[in-house]
Amino acid sequence: MALIPGVLFTLLLCALFFSPIPWKFSLPWVPSLAIDFAVYVDGLSAQFLVLITGIGTLVFVYGAGYLSGHPKCTRVFILLTLFMAAMIGAVVSDHLIVLFVFWELTSILSFLLVGFDHERESNRKSAQQAIIVTGVGGLFLLAGLILLGQIAETYSIQLLLERAPLFLSDRRLNTALGLIMVGAFTKSAQFPFHFWLPNAMAAPTPVSAYLHSATMVKLGIYLLARLDAAFSDLLFWEYTLVTIGTLTAVFAALQTLYERDLKRILAWSTVATLGTLVMLIGLPGHGAALAASALFFAHALYKAPLFFVAGNLDHGAGTRDIDNLTGMRHYMPWTAATAMLAALSMAGLPLTFGFVAKNAITFAKTHANVLHLVSYATVFVSGLSVAVAAIASIHIFWGRDTVPRKAHPHEAKGSMLIPPLVLASLGLLFGLFPTLIDPLLGASARSISPGFDPSKVNAAYDIVPVLEATIGTIIFGMLVYLRWDWLHALMDRIRPFETIGPEAWYRRGLEALPGLAAKQTRLLQHGSLPRYLLTMVAVVTILTIALFVQDSPVWNWPELKTLTIPVLGASTLIVVGGLATLFVYDHLVLLLVSGLVGYGSAILFLFTGAPDLAFTQFVVETVFVVVVATVLVRLRCLNPEKIIAPKEPLLRPLSLAVAIAFGTTLAVLVLLVSGLPFDSMLTDFYAEQSLPAAHGRNVVNLILVDFRALDTLGEISVLMFALVAALPLLKLVGEKRR
Amino acid sequence: MTSRPLIAEVFMRGLYPVLLAVSFWILMRGHNAPGGGFIAGLLAVTASSAYALVFNSSEALRRLPLGPARLAGCGVLLSLMSGLPGILQGLPFLTHPWVTLSLGFFEVPLSTVMFFDLGVYLAVWGAIGGYCLMLVQALEEVA
Fold first, then answer.
1. Where are the beta strands (DSSP E) in B62-105?
2. For the segment A160-187, what is each residue's pLDDT rounded down to a tens digit?
């Protein structure tokens, strides 16, 4: 299974080596909506591609060991392969809508993978939470992308970035960017949408390492970084990103202290890193762009192996609780070595790639004139990540082995050791020889911040000015590590504050939803036919009146024609029928009286030149009266007391008012329409064409069967389907009665 | 119902085919004079409902040429198929070609439009008639 990502990764590396980026091509996809499958690969996309396929390969290798013998192993690999395809699609596409489609695909696959072990209720809830949060964010994103596309008059990302200076002052731009940011924040677990990510740790470990640390959660970062090239000068953009990023980072760093589960600790520290990345994208300057791409890369290289380590511990020792894990180096020496390597990089010690990234961040901050608060926040966050690194390595593997164990812990097998070891060693290799990775980082930073000069990458490795900062964070981190248990107890005491957190609000919202739905269903679907009718007629009346008011039509009264006796008779019939319905209570009589209105209309049609219509009206009216009468008679035999009109005191007067308003509106409408000059274009066309084109003289029927035959076909199909839908219901009623 | 309306039954037995014949005539004349598939279909529905009133709905359902759903389905299918000859001649879907059939002394103009209208007729009869009859039938069982 690892063959697919492996081959892709190799091909990608070769391609990057031999053919200069950017690569682009485009295939028409939905031409009628101007959506092309446009592909554009620049430095940023290339960096993501390298990680998606590279880490993907190792995740597949690791997963083969981790899940071997699991009955649903194949399912995970299929989903992971699909996920990888969706990720690749998202980062290479040059069309906002295509990007969105792949974005949503990754959300769905994440849902399926989080809920992989779906027999546990907590896992199902976590999966549901993940898809609700990212799905709702996705809707915001879609709205934002469409708005942005309309402002820019293009959905092509590259064109949009080029044209950006032209529409930077557009009033709608902030709304569009705000919506897009909400989407990106949900995806990348930023405050206040962060809570789904630690819960998503219900997924199998390889999935967590791949989706919820290395790739998918960085898709939001990707989009922000992609757009940053155009909007980095907007204050709204800059401030929101820096504020939310910093807030998320600090909040998540604090949350790590709550946890005892190694995987959840790593998850919170991932959230903290994501926050830092968002903050870096928000910071102005080329240095920040470089820092973002370096941190992005470094994080993948140290966090994925640490997740793998957590998985190995789970397998070998049967627990991930850090209280029960100490002195594991005796049992799992190779895992211990891996954890050490990865932790060195995570702590940002010199000669590791983490150090390079941290330097770049410090460098970026000093050159971007950030608030001191932001600066302190990053120091705090780095300090805590040092502490987390210490927990994952020193505490677990080197602490004194004091915990009594039932089973003897054992080392993981080769396929679960090589992937983390490779990644962690790469972290060290790139730390020793940063020039190996420079071109990629430079190209990536150039996509985020177009003016960046790739030859200046080396400036970030200057040790001297940032050494104090590094030493400071390490000392702080070690202090936190030493006092970890005490801090944990302290955090436990302030746990009640969780009830005001965003997750509590999410839970409350979810719980309130069924009640709300029930209430509105009861309000709208009350099951009373008179009230339904009343609502519908009232709405139509109000809308029609609103149209009158809005368009203020020219009041052009038609010339009244002299009344002929048949027309007068027909009208009398209609009026008498209409009035009589008001005073009749018996349903059967009511039906017959209302039939008068129908026959009156038919006579009216007959004498005003519409014999076909009159004919149809006569027949329809007859069938209607006969069938309804039959039904009424039977119903009355069944339960006579139920057909009495509902006793609602307000219903009758209200109905009367609505009926009068509706009738008046319609009368005015008809008068207005007759007052307009009659456009006889269509009539003339049919009159002229009926004989030569359709070989007939009955224009009405020719329109039905020839000129507009497709409409008729549609109508009779609807008739047929209505019958097919009604048949089972009628059969059911008949059987119940039997 | 204990007593059967004997006169009405005898009368209805004769009237039913006449009503259907009339409806068919209205279907056929629809091309040049008031009429057509829709009206004719409704007339056939009237015939069926009247039959159901005098006898009962099950009898009326039995007098339909096919089951109601099948009748409606055949109608739609017939209308759909009537558009195919046009396609075969390279014309847009539902363009009705005409041919003139010579029968010695007089000529009969024929077209697929006739099949289309027949389809409408059957669909209306099957769907509306079927619905009415089934509705009455569902309520009839107890009465």
1. 98-103
2. 888 888 888 888 888 999 999 999 999 9
Q: Which of A704, A705, A724 sits opposite B69 (nearest CB)?
A: A724
A202 in Cβ contact with A122 (< 8 Å):
yes
Q: Please give the residue of chain A at the shortest CA–CA distance from B68.
A: A723
φ, ψ of residue A520 in degrees (nearest 5): -70, -30
Compute the count of residue pairs across chains A and B with CB atoms less than 8 Å apart.
Answer: 165
State whether B72 and A719 contact (CB < 8 Å).
Answer: yes
Asked if B136 lies within 8 A of A704 by C-beta distance, the reply is no
Start-end of H helices in A453-585: 467-482, 484-493, 502-524, 529-551, 565-583
Q: Is B54 on the interface with A (CB under 8 A)?
A: no
CA–CA distance, A474 with A26 (Å, rounded to integer) = 49
- Tell me how close the Cα of A205 comes to any Cα of chain B, in angstroms: 55
B30/chain A closest Cα distance in angstroms:
6
User: Encoding tokens for residue A318?
Assistant: 């049967």
**What Å distances lie between residue A497 and A256, A264, A272, A275, A503, CA to CA?**
16, 19, 20, 22, 11
| Band of pLDDT at residue B17, cut at 50, 70 and 90 | very high
Measured in degrees and rounded to the nearest 5, phi and psi for residue A23 equal -100, 145
Contact B79 A731 (CB under 8 A): no
- Please report which residue ranges of A283-368 form alpha helices under DSSP H: 286-317, 333-347, 353-368
Tell me the whole-structure pTM to 2 decimals.
Answer: 0.70
Chain B residues inside the 8 Å CB shell of A702:
31
CA dist A697 and B34 (Å) reads 10
> Does ipTM surpass 0.90 in this model?
no
Residue A343 CB coordination number (10 Å): 28
Place of tokens 């909040």: A251
Backbone angles phi, psi at A93, to 5 degrees: -75, 145
Q: What angle do CA A526, A531, A535 make, to 5 degrees?
A: 105
Taking the C-alpha atoms of residue A232 and residue B53, their distance in angstroms, rounded to an integer, is 79
The verdict on B117 touching A (C-beta cutoff 8 Å) is: yes
The answer to whether B137 contacts A730, with C-beta atoms less than 8 Å apart, is: yes
Residue of A nearest to B140 (CA): A634
Cα A453 from Cα A445, distance rounded (Å): 9
Cα–Cα dist A674/A669, whole Å = 9
The alpha-carbon radius of gyration of chain B (Å, integer) is 18
B35 with A697: Cβ contact below 8 A: no
Shortest distance between the Cα of A616 and any Cα of chain B, in A, equals 5
Q: What is the pLDDT of residues A455-484, one digit of tens each?
A: 666 655 555 566 777 788 888 888 888 888
Interchain CB distance below 8 Å, B31 and A696: yes
CA distance A569 to A336: 101
